Amino acid sequence: MLKNLYQNDRRILKDCLPLKLPLCVSIEPTNLCNFKCVMCFHGNNEYADGAKPLKNMEWDIFQKTLDDLKNWTDGAGEKIKLLKLYSLGEPMVNPRLCDMVKAVKERDVAEQIEITTNGSLLTRETAKKLVEYGLDIIRISIYGIEEERNKYITKSSYTPSDIWENVRFLHEYREKTGGAKPKIYVKMFDAGKSVNEEFLKKYEDIADVVGIDEIFNMDVGENDVFENYYGDEAAQEHRNSMESNIFQEKRACRYPFTHLTVRNDGTVITCCADWLKELRFGDIKEHSIQEIWESKSLYDLRQKMLSTKGQCFKACRACEIPYRDLPEDSVDELDFNRFGYVNEY
Predict the structure, then answer these.
(1) What is the pTM for the complete model shown?
(2) What torsion, rounded to 10 degrees, do the Cα atoms 267, 268, 274, 275 define?
(3) What does the radius of gyration of the chain's CA atoms come to, in whole angstroms?
(4) How far is residue 153's CA from residue 161's CA, in Å, rounded to a whole number?
(5) CB distance 191 to 150 below 8 Å
């Protein structure tokens, strides 16, 4: 199971807070998706109404974000650990995604650049550019290796064979050019022992890491994550998932202390799963990204997260991400007196 893939050189988070820079910045190329997965916010009508504007990020907003990051990292004398070019949508819907990868690499603001994709739009031209432009990590989410199951989950016409061929070509081209990047991670949600084994075997020769992931609950509107994915077995699958969590009790979330997401319209939120932008604390069009990170708005949000363990936020009440955090990432006993803010807004 893919419990956590970020386990190298880990330190106790509480000892490192407050951070001068977030550990991870997500920039959302688009909040559109060509899949309408049954367990996802994209698979319901509420998303279309609540997540507006539904569009690709405009280049001037991306450029402003990148300019801000360059000024901030240069001034701090360090880089962002990880920059993710995705959030709620399928990043390859944006035709300028590869240009974004190239621009981030040229600005040298992050130690690693990562994309998560469903793999359906990973054309040969795109694959070549991602290799040539130096993308560090690509994570490919597979939703079924059986055609009918994949069609039910994704509500798309792309077949498992289409996606396998896209991954195969990316791997082949990377190997042919003699490069080591991007690292290819392929995952599928737990589908039962025999299907899991078939999936692992299918991808083991064309990916660097292949694994089975677990579904977890979060607010996706009118959809029920487990029921829509597992049907009659939903209750048992949810019990199994909860029993395997590292923590069994509600925890405060570390994301307001470690992550920052710039949405497609320039809105800044703490969590890439907050599709309603409830945890909004800035706008890239109004302030620099550093000013937003050092704002009273984020200070107040962090205080609420610690005091209520996220229960004051609708987006956080049902979310099970904190249950899965490693013990060294806990912020529950954090001394908030160490925190302050620079900007009053």
Answers:
(1) 0.93
(2) 20
(3) 20
(4) 15
(5) no
